[in-house]
Amino acid sequence: MTIQHAQPILRLIQELSKLPGVGEKTAFRLALHIMRAPQEDAEGLAQAIRQVKEKIRLCSQCFNLTDQDPCRTCQDPRRNGELICVVSGPEDLIALEKSGSYRGHYHVLHGVLSPLDGVGPKDLRVSELLSRLPGGKVKEVILATNPSVEGEATAQYLAQIIKPLNIRVTRIARGVPMGSDLQYIDEVTLSKSLENRSPI
């Protein structure tokens, strides 16, 4: 026998189950939690979701998620302008920042090359990266894409087009295991990977 939920509960469960890693049972538990929470907590959650959608945009320089342009990282005068670390997504940038071992600038591609999925260079922020390199200020580009097949292909592609610009191109060391995502790697491993980066 199918349980009939009230329409607002059913809608909330359906919306929550669209989140990654949230199945119908978890969505139901979350919906119950939201219903039992004080009114101000539920309104705070709704307002936070609204603000993220209304105020968060991409930084015009590094393409990280931000509420101001340029972002705080790009505006920070203490960061080393000679280094640009290229990452696949904002979650990788956050992981590297948590390691505390990198003080240069970033560039977020928002994906990796994946011909089978129809993702080519034009679908990533590659041209924007190249536009940041002329002028002689940038001395090194660190390729910190995930050590997956797609991440490696992206790193090799970027190395081929950046090397002719007489800029040092390095890849984070293989301390990061193949097939894993940067966001799940511990800070010590990430820190060592950055320290032991090698030319490619």
Question: Care to give the gist of this entry?
Answer:
The protein has 200 residues and is α/β, with parallel strands linked by helices.
What oligomeric state is this? single chain
Low-confidence stretches: none
Distance between the termini: 61 Å
Number of domains: 2
User: What would CATH call the class of the largest domain?
Assistant: Alpha Beta
Helix count, DSSP H or I runs of 4 or more residues: 8
Structure description:
With 200 residues, the chain is of the alpha/beta class. It folds into 2 domains: 7-55, RecR Domain 1 (Helicase, Ruva Protein, domain 3, Orthogonal Bundle), CATH 1.10.8; 72-199, 3-Layer(aba) Sandwich (Dna Topoisomerase Vi A Subunit, Chain: A, domain 2), CATH 3.40.1360.10. The protein has helices at residues 7-16, 24-36, 39-55, 72-75, 90-99, 126-131, 149-162, 187-195, and strands at residues 57-58, 65-66, 80-87, 104-108, 140-143, 168-171, 198-199. It has a 5-stranded mixed sheet. Strand 1 (57-58) and strand 2 (65-66) form a beta hairpin. Helix 1 crosses helix 2 and helix 5 packs across helix 8 (187-195). The termini are far apart. The model has no long low-confidence stretch (mean pLDDT 90).
